[in-house]
Amino acid sequence: MDKKIFVYTNGTEMSTNIEKILRKKLNKTGLRVFEEYDESTELIICIGGDGTLLRLVQDFNFPKTPIVGINTGHLGFFQEILPEKIDDFIFLYNQDRYSIQGLNGVTCCVKTDSSSSKHTALNEITVKGLLTHPVHLNISINNSFIERFSGDGICVASPAGSTAYNYALGGSIVDPRLNLLQVTPIAPMQNVAYRSFTSSILLPSNDKLTVIPCNNDDCNLSVIYDGMMTDYKNIKEISICLSRKKINLVRFDDYQFWEKVKSKFL
Ligand code: NAP
User: Fold this and answer.
1) 177-214 as b/e, with b when 16 or more CB fall inside 10 Å?
2) How far is the CA of 103 from the centre of ligand 1 (A)?
3) Is 12 exposed, middle or buried (0-12, 13-18, 19+ CB in 10 A)?
4) CA 69, CA 43: separation in Å to the nearest integer?
5) How many helices (H) and strands (E) does the chain have?
6) 35 vs 94: CA distance, rounded Å
7) Whole-structure pTM value
8) Catalytic amino acids?
9) For position 1, what pLDDT does the model report?
C-alpha cells in the first residue's frame, strides 16, 4: 500500500522548487503526498531550515509522525537531507533503512494573578525582562531555593536546543542521548550588590525549575518559546521542566551527532 506523506515548507522560492521536484520523485515510488496532515500520515517532510522545523512543531503540536528535513535554510542543524540527495533519501526510506531520534521539548506553566498558561518549545524557554530592564528572579529547583538571579534573564534549553540560543549564550552543546535540562544565565550581574551563577547548570530530566519574581517591578516578563514571545503582567510563578512531548526525527545510517556539530559549528 502507498505510504502517506505530508510536505511542510517555508514557501521560499528555493523550497517551492525543491517541493516540485520532490513531489514528482515521490509519486514515481509509491509514496503519496496528501494535502492535509492527519494522524495516519506516515512521514512529514519539512523543507526549509531549523526555523521551519520549529514552526512545524508548533503548528502541529509536536506531531508523533516521524519528520525528515530537507535543508534549504541557512544552518539546517535538524535537517537531515541536502536537496541534491533526495534520490538517496527516497531509496533508503523505501527500504526502511533509517532510525528514529526522539527529541523531547521543554515546557513551562506561567501563573499570573488571574491566569495560567502553558507553552512547550523544542529548543528552549527564555524568561526575560520587558525591553532592556534587568530582572531579579528567585530560582528554585524542586521547590528548594537556589539563587536570586539578577541579569537579563534565563534560557532553559532542551538537549535539542543546546546548539541554538543556549550555545550563543555560552551554554554547552549536549549530545541528545543525554536527556537533561540546561539553565543558562543571560548577562548575569556580578558585583558587590548582586551575585548570580555565571555558567549553565544542568538538571536531570525529571527536575522542575521554578522562577518567582523578587519584587513587583519584576512581575512583568517576556516568555519566549522557540522564538515566539508572549509578554505577561503580574506573574506569580513560572515553572519549567522537560516536556513529555517529543518529536521523532528520521536519521539515516551516516548520521552522527558530533559529526553534524563539527560540520555546522567548526
Ligand atoms: P531565526 O533568527 O531564523 O533563527 C536563528 C538561527 O538559529 C537560525 O540560523 C536557525 O537555523 C538556528 N537554529 C534554530 N534551532 C537550532 C538548533 N536547535 N540548533 C542550531 N541552530 C538552530 O529565528 P527562528 O527561525 O524563529 O528560530 C528561533 C530560534 O532562534 C530560537 O529557538 C533560538 O534558539 C534561536 N535564537 C538564537 C539567538 C542567537 O543565536 N543569538 C537569538 C535568539 C534566538 P536555520 O538557519 O536553519 O533556520
Assistant:
1) eebbbbbbbbebbeeeeeebbeebbebeeeeebbbbbe
2) 17
3) middle
4) 11
5) 5, 15
6) 21
7) 0.97
8) 50
9) 61
The dihedrals phi and psi of 96, each to the nearest 5 degrees, come to: 60, 30
Instruction: Report the distance separating Cα 10 and Cα 72, nearest Å.
Output: 9
| Residue 15 exposed, middle or buried by CB count within 10 Å (0-12, 13-18, 19+) | buried
Measured between alpha carbons, how far is 218 from 109 in angstroms, rounded to an integer? Answer: 17
Ligand 1 atom at minimal distance to the Cα of residue 168: 40
Cell numbers at 13, concatenated = 522560492
User: How many angstroms separate the CA atoms of 150 and 192, rounded?
Assistant: 12
Domains of the chain: 3-97 (3.40.50.10330), 105-244 (2.60.200.30)
Tens digit of pLDDT for each residue in 150-198? Answer: 999 999 999 999 999 999 999 999 999 999 999 999 999 999 999 999 9
Q: Name the residue with cell 508548533.
A: 58
Distance 10 CA to ligand 1 centre (A): 15
d(CA 219, CA 215): 7
Going by their DSSP bridges, the two strands 3-9 and 144-157 should be labelled as unpaired
The binding-site residues of ligand 1, defined as CB within 6 angstroms of any ligand atom, are 49-51, 54, 73-77, 123-124, 160-161, 163-165, 168, 226-227
Give the residue carrying C-alpha cell 539578577.
150
Place of cell 494522524: 39
**Pairwise CA distance, residues 239 & 222, whole Å:** 14
For 226: left if phi > 0, alpha if psi spans -120 to 50, otherwise beta; the answer is left
